Amino acid sequence: MSQLSISARAPELIEYLVDARFHTSPNAFEVVTPPNPDWRKLVQGIRVPVLLLLASRGIVSIDTACELQRLNPLLRFEIIPDAGHGMPYDNPEQVGAAVSAFAASMHAIEHAAIAAS
Prior knowledge:
The protein is mainly alpha-helical.
């Protein structure tokens, strides 16, 4: 975590994150222990619209997001600037805006489908 992102966080939030880290079970990370699921197959099987949020300083690359989008056209992604793995804490306004825009687009699709029927 860079010093910039830490200094931008409230002391109460930093205390909360440290406390959460100490209370997180090591078993919580078993999902990343091999053998890992084939994410490509999982993404291909999703039949509803999906929003993937990428942190500008995150671990999922834009190339990976593009690959996932090619595998499933129902997936779209947004890059959250000035954010790492804790993007809701690093840039809550941008996360909220991306989720709100996605929800609004789903609402518009639903209304268009109702109007067409």
